[in-house]
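Sanity check

After download, print the first record. It should look like this:
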Amino acid sequence: MRPDMPADLVDHIAEAERMERTAGLYPEDAEHLLLQAAAHLELAEDRERATTLYDRLLSSSSPTALENPQLVKALKAANLWEYGHEAEARAIIDGVRAAAPNDAAPWVIVAEALEAHDELEAAQETFTQAVALLLADKPDPPQDAHPVLFGRHRVRRMLGAPHDEWDTLADSLHTSSSGGPSPVSLDELHDPKRVWSLGSEDPAELRAEISRLRAELGSYREALSRPFPVAVLHWPAPELTELLTAYPDLTAEYPSHEEHLATVESSLRELAASGTPNLGIVTATVPSYEAFAASEASSPSDASLLPQYATTLAARGRAVAWPPRRDEGCWCGSGRVYGECHGMSAVVG
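Expected structure tokens:
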């Protein structure tokens, strides 16, 4: 499925089957690919088959071997509830909450499942539990925690609860899809009475509501979109040595590992300075690259494959966002924090 393809023109069953086949070719990415396949099946209303994929992930190996087992469980619970398995869904949701994952995604999914089935008090409790965990000891909320704050704000607005400090924080974080202050406040977007104005015969009220809905749609698109990052390829030192030993023609691309690392950082800074959003780094391995070259019926010595390989890894969910925070480990694997390694004196715009 191309990113620009309208959702209503997609054959979701065919896409799901394609993702399953690809998962068989790339077992290291099976979790990411099978979750995409399950999402297509849900969109096709083939929910039982989607549950089978979630079960396949959870039972194929120890759940702890999954990158995010709680996300898989959360998605399974939300899907089960949609076709009548409420008791099982509730049990899984209770298990996710008890596990207290450090990732925001499972929290959002289980809380929104409760919200979608009018369990507003339980949804508020779940969002609140998530906010308390994800914001603990953090002066600034991480980006992935924003949907949790926004969801909590929305549910509390529906319950008529008075604003608290986390609601105020959600208001301050609310931005439009362009990155500037939103013309419509979060309180307006989450006003449960807003829909009443759609029944009005006053053109001014209808125009105002259309403006609000457009702003809300922009916010949802920003939150739900997961565009592939513009990714730069990174070869760890042992992998680069193995690559150049097997394919010496690529030495022109990679004169040395130190120069390669410097080129990765400088390329990303140039892209950032040009205004390119959503930058990332994908880590290469020789076996994976050789498999990609074989799939393209080409030789790994062909340097033109390298950017295509990077894009393919990013499309398979292998990219890590750049730049890291200055106090986080550097992307190069040196063991030093980014601000004391490749981020030294960096000014990322």
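If your output differs, re-run the checksum step. Summary of this record's structure: The CA atoms of residues 177 and 221 lie 8 Å apart.
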